[in-house]
Amino acid sequence: MKDIEILRELAKELAQIAALPQQEETIRLWKKLNSLKPERPMYTINQICWHEINVEDALTLQCEDPFYQEIETDLRRRLYRNKYLKDDFVYEAAIYIPTVVVGLNSGLEEKKDTIILNEDKEAIMAQHFHDQLKTEADLEKLQIPDFWIDVEATRKREEMTEDAVGDILEVVMDGVDFGFFVWDYLVQWRGFDNLLEDITYEIDFIHQIVDKATNIQLAILDKLEAMNLLKKRPQLIHCSGTFTDELPKSENADPMHPKAIDSWTCGEAQILYLVSPKMHNELEFEYVKKCFDRFGLVYYGCCEPLDDRLEYVKQIPNLRKISCSPWVKNHERFAEELEGRYVMSHKPNPAFLVDGMYHPDKIRKNMQMLLDASNKYNCPCEFLLKDISTVSNKPERLFEWSRIADEVLRR
């Protein structure tokens, strides 16, 4: 079968890369960083505009079967990353196939209107969410989802993968991504403006929603653990490397049946950067403490600047990494407040890759400034280039960013 021949050639190439000694070295360096004893900063490039960077048809799919196209996409992107991006991604001789889970949502299906900029799978879109929680009576709509595994569909996916590449790559039937993003769900259930109005005028109602949504997340976590649906061996959490000697934590832990305490998780509440640090603590951190207490290690934050509320962020249980977004005002102060007890997760601005802002010297200068801020206070750090919506159809800019990172961070 032509599809299988295509996949086998790609799998063999990946297996050769995975066998190189540099994979173990990269894992060792991630472990050093995650134990707060780094030898150098680490960096990754993720959330990429793949539709803009197809050099020499390296990403062009050749398989015809839709499921085999999923596998081919994964393999081609990993091979592309190794050839062109050259970041601190670790290449494993394994392929992770998601278990087919039906009915899993966060407590309520979203309703929205969407405007799509382009019809590509990597489409950029604008979304308007319908308000489904207008009154206290509407809280009854929030229920623990009754999700289940489609055993037959999962079995078929596993068999097809094993038949195609099982003798070349390890086939892992994997679980689902899980993090605590209650405020993202609230935006999807209510809409941005409605939430801000209620924070101002109906704070008790907001607390009721957050409390119920948090308890639903905890119930979902219980069920995911019982059904063995947590991620098996994720090497990234929110685009950050997870390799560590501190996990698993439980006795007799089984990597193929992970518990939350043996795993990383992440969370954020981007909308709450608009409120005071004290209110952010009241509406987010006081709730997520009981969630993050369940996990072994935690990554917190995304694009929201956290520099004026780190005193509350640092109260998160099992916290190891804190996002330092492009909108942080004082990076030195941020590094000083971390006291060397957390990884400072720098987010270089992806806007530096687009027309009108792109200039290698500016990228280098910004990266060096971020590194100097961390080094001044002996703060372990990493660099995560992400949220790359566009490179203005010039993939060489992404390659240049990686070359600069190699010079500034590795050498």
Question: How does this structure look, described?
Answer:
The protein is α/β, with parallel strands linked by helices and 411 residues long. It has one domain (2-410): TIM Barrel (Alpha-Beta Barrel). It is built from 12 helices and 14 strands. The chain has helices spanning 2-18, 21-34, 66-85, 151-165, 182-190, 192-201, 203-226, 277-292, 310-313, 331-338, 360-376, 396-410; strands spanning 42-45, 94-98, 101-102, 112-116, 125-129, 148-149, 170-174, 236-237, 240-241, 264-267, 297-300, 319-324, 343-346, 381-385. The protein has a 6-stranded parallel beta sheet, with helices on both faces. A two-stranded parallel sheet has the order 2-7. It starts with a helix and ends with a helix. The mean pLDDT is 95.
In short:
This protein has 411 residues and is an alpha/beta fold. 41% of the residues lie in helices and 13% in strands. The chain starts with a helix and ends with a helix.
